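Contributing new records

If you add data, match the layout below exactly. Sequence lines come first and carry their own label; structure lines follow with theirs. Keep one chain per record. Anything else will be rejected by the validation script.
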Amino acid sequence: MNQKILSPEVQQYILKHIKDDVNQIALAKPVFEGVRSTALASQIAAKKKSLHKLPTWYHQNYIYYPPLLSIEQCSSELTAAYKANLIIGNTLIDLTAGFGVDSFFFSKKAQKVTSCEIDTELSAISAHNVKILGANNIKCLAADGIKIIKEKGLNFDTIYIDPARRSGSTKVFKLKECTPDVTSHLNLFLEKSQRIIIKTAPLLDISAGIAELQNVSEIHIVSVKNECKELIWIIDRNYTSETKIICITINEITKTFSFGLSALQTRINIATVAPAGYLYEPDVALLKSGAFNLIADQFELQKLHQHSHLYFSDVIKSDFLGRIFEIETLLTLNELKKEKNLIGNVIVRNFPEKAEHLVKKYKITPSHDDFIIFTQSSNGYLVIKARIIQYY
């Protein structure tokens, strides 16, 4: 950690050149003694990335930024704030702190936070930023958090861990393929805490995760503006009941949809009538949950097709987690060929052609509020012209 980067002159330079091309800055001659041009460029690039993802850090003076990759991999403020509401008790240990975003938000709820990061440079950066941000109840340690629990015999109300996927792992991965391996240390964690919170990438299969773990009380599927950001696994020491799935969509309005795992067995009848009224497209958090039939049952919607995962109703359900369209016209593919001057954003659901190909094929002009949805109903392929009335 180069302390010269924190000098007033360098900090003013970073602010002044925040909108400049970082590649040109990196290739230019050094501006300050003891500060490489590449280091300046790295600070500016990381600060830029923090504008929307980490606004608290971005708007705070004298923040020291790690390499850009750490900013890209850390939690956003939105998801970190959500996780902070899931902790219990007064003491927490963050075993894989990284840049320290989660630790910072945990410190707003817990009295004492131990923030462990095995990378000494990253830990030093976090320790500096903790002081700048005034989070005096965080203790930053450049250490292996699991060793600390083992060797010091410490107990915590909550243990938080964000295991990283090992390089070279396949797209479908397991927790035991991550570092650290949560599954091999789970008994230790249960012995040392009341609650364990595990953050994983959304690619992790929910059924596979449950099979690897024990005492899973809740699984939170977190999406921000229809992008699934993370899965949060809550493990409670004495929990033996059914696992609860909680879908959370964070947008202008935050919405939740929760159910017990057994509800995934809900059965419904697929609609046999043509869709009319309003079309419902689930948020990715709902789709990740696999509750395709339950969505129709709970929101009193009709499912268009077993594999289309689109729904419709003659009334608006504003509490729905996802987009809602007002259906204007239904067309067969043959009828669509006769249409001219088509306008709309193309959506493809359970249809054999890609959106970009359909745009060219039918010469469709994009639109802000109008949509053309290529899908399949129980009666075959269908094209729906609709107008959006609710965004994610």
